[in-house]
Each structure stands twice: as structure tokens, then as C-alpha cells.
Amino acid sequence: MRWLILILGIAILAGVASIVIVLRDGVAPGPRTAGTEVVSPAATPSPPQEGPPSPTASVFTDPCGTFDTTAPTPYAVTGYWLIPTSDPCTWRRQLQAIHRLGGDTVVRLGFGLSPRPVDREGRVLNRLGDGAGPVSANQGKAAEDPKPDGRYAKCEENGLTCVQAADKDLKAANPGNMITWTYVYRTDERFGPGIFRCPSIEHEIEVNGAVFYRLIAPEDGSDDPTCDFTSKGRRYHLILVSAGQKDSLTELLDLGDRFGIHVFPALPLAPRDFVKTATADPRHIGTLTTLTRRVLQDYGDRFADRASLGGVYQPFELQIRDWTDPSKFQTLLVYEEQHRIVEQVLPGKPILVSPYLDGRRQKKYTATPAQVAAGFKALARTGVGIIAPQDGRGTGKVGLYWPNLKNKPVDDRLKPVVGDTTYAAAYYGSTRDYYRAMAQARTELAQEGIDVRLWANVEAFEPTHTGDTCGRQSSRGRTDKARLDTQVALAAPYVSKIISYMWSDFFTCDSPSLSKEISDDWDRPIAIEARRVDQEAQDGQDGQDGQDGLEIRGYHVGFAKVTLSWTGVETPRVIDAAVVGRRDTVPIEGLPVGTEKVWIPVDWASVPQGVWVRVDVTTSDGRKAAEPVYYRNSV
């Protein structure tokens, strides 16, 4: 009997222990009170459209060393641009450093398709300028007197230049065939057989360690799949691709799989208009789409099932504004044709584009927030899946300020761009105004059945030098973490992800580097929004006392001390969210990963109507958010 009682006692103790564990580790049932916390379920996955692939291991070793795939200091910025590199170990170091800061996306800069003149000896000449059209030998010398391009001088077949060899093979198929334009495309990728549509006349050329691809495109842009070069004479465009000995994209995707990072390789960049150099030249649409189709066909053959291939990047930059007739704007025409190829060949892979904003009042052809919202809609209709506008602070084309501060002098670092003036005189709106307008445009597009994601591209540089030259960035200096935090604070409430231009070299130059500043201070709070919320609405339950309060959204705000102040208040009010607040870490739909919210009680009866309440957030160790948020007490 004593054994039976002992066993029964052990069972009762085990049951009590399990209840204690559940109540300690989970959320207790019943009404939530001040000082409590709501946490995200551990198994809740990231939204599929934003979530990166999972790292394949915590640590791995290869010829470049041992690398760690953990992310110990995750920051609000989760994506970065990368410059192509010939050193695979540089890729590895960069992706590890990006992943350590919580980065899950990299965007790779790419290369441009370039029409080129050819001399009488069949040699490809240097470009005449960005977007310059081809010049035949009988047109005389141009002012720049182009010389043979050494890169393509290496391309030879059977004693002939590659241009001569292509012309010979086409004429052997039919004497009426002729090459009317020659284009070159430089890349560090090495393609598979998917790059070819007509292997009878298209092929890879490897000579003295250099790799080239010869592609033949019908002049009409049809990329004729019949590969009929014999039945009648036709006019063709020759595309010579200078490629890498190894495929850099394979290496980058392998690293993406290792670190759980999405990779967005660049599409071929369209040639520029020779006169209107800020726009794409539609004369080359046929050849551009042919090259795009071939490259993406090869991607589809080799990488379609790779989780790390997040999509593709449209590298031709444009200013987002309200075009008078978008259907006639050259760059949008080129976009639409090139994006149609992506949809056909790589369905399900989004196109990322990052247009720039310009809100300066004293310049022509700039745009208000409303005009940018109209341009956002026109851009979305070209088939892009992600629009990540550049926030403009790095170039000084848009300012970082709140509506109640618009009459303050501009930051000293903006004066070389807009002069010694106020924000209101310099700009049509702040970055927050522009992203708010684009977020509304995105909502309206969704109602039309057009789904597009809005990201923010925060520029990690200053308009002018701030110290030593940042690597290859000769005209600008890198910024500091405080200003980057401010950029995040002003854009984050309206976007689903924040990325930055660019990792190399703005995050890596100087000592300490910007990336080191971030890793040393990664959990400093960044408040992004304050809104009035009463406790009953917050809890979603009846029977509460209906106490009014303030909901603060942002990064690392849950246990901070919140200081409220406004014009006329003698003593700012300090509220300890860790004591009387209510933290909620459940992911906020539509906002970037890592954002949370905290509710604090506020006696609004003692706050004057119409004032702007300044909300400062400070950690328990005294670190204050770089930028306060403001709430206008208009209720």
C-alpha cells in the first residue's frame, strides 16, 4: 500500500510540475494585464513571400576558411547590394558578415548590353559612350576615335575574329544573310547550354583562358526557334558575351543556400539612349529581350529549384515620378518587354526594381509624394513584383524630418545639395511622406488585382565625403548608424522590408566600419510609429477599464523607458514599459521582420489637444533611440 501511495504522489508532483512549466513558458490564460508580454509562437514561420531559405548548417569549412551561419546581431536592414568580385573568398566573407547582421537578401549588380562599332578588320571597338549606337566603317571617324577593345580582341576562331567567323558561318548557310549590328555583353558568369537556342550556329568559344559565347539574334527580335538560317537571307544581330571561367552565380547561390540568403542576380542592363542618356533606348528592345530570354532559360535549366534564387533585379535605374503618358516613356517600354520575358521563362520569380526619389523644390522634373504615388502605379504595371525606392537621403534628394519640424534648418550634410535653408523650402516632403503615399498606391493596386511589394532602400552614404574614400566610392562618404536608424524609423511603418545600397564599400570602409558600428549597437531601440490605442481595444475583450494609452511600434522597444514631452510641458513624463507596459512580439502583418509593439498607459486628459507629442525610447542601460517618433494628439 505504501508503494501505491508513493507512486500516486510522484504522479501528482509530475502533473503539477508540467502545469508550472506551461504557465512559465507559455501565455497564461485569462485577461492580460499591465506588465505582461505576448510572444510570437516559436513555430510561426516567416511569410513565404519574404522568408529566406534556412541555413543548411551552423558552421561549415571550405578552402576560404571556417564560417558560421548564425546571426547573433540581427539589425533592421535585412538586404544589401553587392558588387561582383572575382575572388570567391570575398563572396564568402561578405555573406557571412551580412548574415551575422540578420541579412537574408543580397542584390547583385550586373552588366550592360552594349552596341558596338566594328572596324574593317572585324574588330570590336570601344564604346562611343553610354548607349552609343553602332558605327559602320564607312561612316568616318567619330570624334572619340574608338580603338579596338582588348577584351574582345582575344575572341578568335580559326584565324578570324569572332565577328568575321560569325559572318562567314551565316553566309555559308545563305549568302543573303548579314550581320547588321554587333553587341557585346560582359559578365563573370559562365552559362550552360541553355544559353543557346540554335547550336548549329551558336556556341561557346574558349581561347587562351578566355571564355566567350556567340549568340545570333534575328534583327526583328523574334528569336526564331526554327533556327532556319538557310531558306532565305535574313538580317541578324550578333551578341558576343565575354564570360567567366567559373560561374560566379553558382558560387553565390551555393553560399545563399549555406547562409539562408536570397540572391537577386541582375538582368542584362538595357543600352542607354545616346541623346537622352537617363532613359533606355527602345531601338535595342529586340536584342535585349533575346539576351534576357537566353540568360533566364539557362537560369531555369540550372537554378529553378534553388531556394536561394529569390528573383531577378532590374538594374536600369529611373526616377519615379508622374509620367504624362507612361505608355510612351522609353524606359517603361523597355521594362515592360524585358519583364514579360521574365514572366514567361521564370514564372514565380519576382522582379526587383529600385527607382530613385527626388523631392527637391528648386530642381526641374522632381516630384511630389502624390506624383510619386502615380508613378509607383505605372511602374507596378510593367510586371515588377517588388519596388524598393531609394529613400534619397544619401544623395540629398529627400530629407529626413517630421511634419512639425519642417521649418527647421536642414542637416549640415545636406547643405551642399540644397543650400542653407529649411526642410519646407528645400523639399516637397520627407521620406515618410513619400513612403506613405506609395503604400497607399500599393493598397489601391491590390484592389485592382495587381500585387506588388513595397520595400525601402535606405542609402548608406552621404552626399559628400565624410572622411577617407570608401573603396571604389570616390565621390561620397559612408554614413553612421545613428542616421541609418533614423532612415529606418521614417520608412519602416509603410514597407515590408528594408534593404540598403550598398554593402561594398559603405558598410566595410573606415575603422570602425559601419557594419562594426551596427554589430556593437544592434539592439538599440528604433521606434517607427506611435498611435493612440485604449486598453480595451488592445486586449480585444470586454470588461476592461478602458484606460487610454499609446502603442509604440519598432525594434527592441518592448522593455524600454518611454519619455513623453511636448511644447509647454514642464516635466517630461517617463513610463517604464517593463513595469507597466504590455509587450507584443507577434509579427505585425505587412511590417518588416523584427518589429514589435508595446502598449503603455497615458492620461490623455492631461495632454493638450493638437500638440505634437515627442516619444523618446531608451533602454535600461541608457541607450536612446537615434530618432524620436511624434504623435499628434488630435483625438
UniProtKB/TrEMBL annotation:
Q: Which is an annotated Pfam family here? A: DUF4434
What organism is the protein native to? Answer: Sphaerimonospora cavernae
Domain of life, source organism: Bacteria
Give the DUF4434 domain ranges. 243-512
The name under which this protein is listed is: DUF4434 domain-containing protein
Give start-end positions of Pro residues composition bias: 44-55
Note down the stretches annotated as region Disordered: 32-59, 128-148
UniProt cross-references to InterPro entries, sorted A to Z: DUF4434
